[in-house]
Amino acid sequence: MSLPPPGLVRAATTAMRQMADANTAFLKNEWYVVAFADELQRSLLKRTVLGQRLVLFRTLAGVPVALDDRCAHRSFPLSAGTLEGDTVVCGYHGLRYDAAGDCIQVPSQKTCPKGIGVRAFPLVARGPFVWAWLGESTPDPSRIPGTPWLDGAEWTSSRGYFHLPANYVSLHENLLDLTHLSFVHARSFGTPDYAAAPYETSLEEGRFRITRTVAPTRLPPVWAKPTGLEHDAAARIATSEFVSPGLHVVTANFHDYRLPADKRAEFQIRTCHVPTPETHHSTHYFIVHSRDFALADAAVTRFMHDELFRAFEEDVVALTRLEEVLANPGAPFYEMSVASDAPSVAMRRYLLRRALEEQSP
Fold first, then answer.
1. How many CB atoms lie within 10 A of CB 343?
2. Pairwise CA distance, residues 244 & 247, whole Å
3. What is the pLDDT averaged over residues 213-232?
4. How big is the chain by its Cα radius of gyration, in Å?
5. How far apart are alpha carbons 300 and 174 in whole angstroms?
6. Is the pTM of the predicted complex or chain greater than 0.85?
7. Domains defined along the chain, listed by start
8. Which partner from 17, 255, 305, 327 sits 20 to 30 angstroms from 215, CA to CA?
């Protein structure tokens, strides 16, 4: 068979039009991570988020600031200027801006004209992240997704960052459909039995989840060695959840499948996958991986970090290849969904619906 029947192709094409893709407008009325908290120092950091050029820094009091990275005079990037006290001085003609984005000095004249300034964007530092609001509606910090375990003494974490040359919708879909672990990650933390393992889904408004139970199984070394579950009778229960456009959380529990609940040790890991769109075809990919065991063992932290981030690099490679095809897919172009895509399809429909609502007058 060279092509599916025309009716099936039409149905697939219609379904695609109902889902967000790389070119769907960004949801700006959401909180997104713009940096790890310790990236913001007493220096100017440039970063593009949702297509918006930003310059980031901290005031002398340590307050994080984000301004439009463009001087209101002749559009020179403020990130190429200097930070003096709590002000940014443009490196082109010397206009000075305060932390609110107001121009307070024009060197070529004695008085500063009123009304000159650049937009300042609300920032909230919480845990390891700095969250930004780029939308036009009033920001509500209570809508920042909660990650309380990142501040708890019962967990230890490591972190990393990738500049992903692919769109954030594809990254969210990658994280929701972990069938790919058996293939993309066959040499890292995937196992042959993962793709066919039974799963359950939950499709709530704006929150989409899939849980897979792989048991009994042999864990990959990244989990088996630190937990001591180095046999063929381990249980691996993984939940992948779209929490918001700016946060995806993967939680996995491990135990000895042979033992009753009151006799076995339980091990849990939780990974914050944080996709922040840079452009429609590139993404800031922040990751914080946490565990609730071997908390003080630095060797375990290093081993797990190296193994996990080698696996996450495999995702970057896969999504980069996918983006290359999407840039020139050829015609006719259609994609078929299967049963395990239900959370991904629901998530993409949600993103498209939200984007259309934001654009409507």
1. 24
2. 5
3. 97
4. 23
5. 27
6. yes
7. 35-134 (2.102.10.10), 146-359 (3.90.380.10)
8. 305
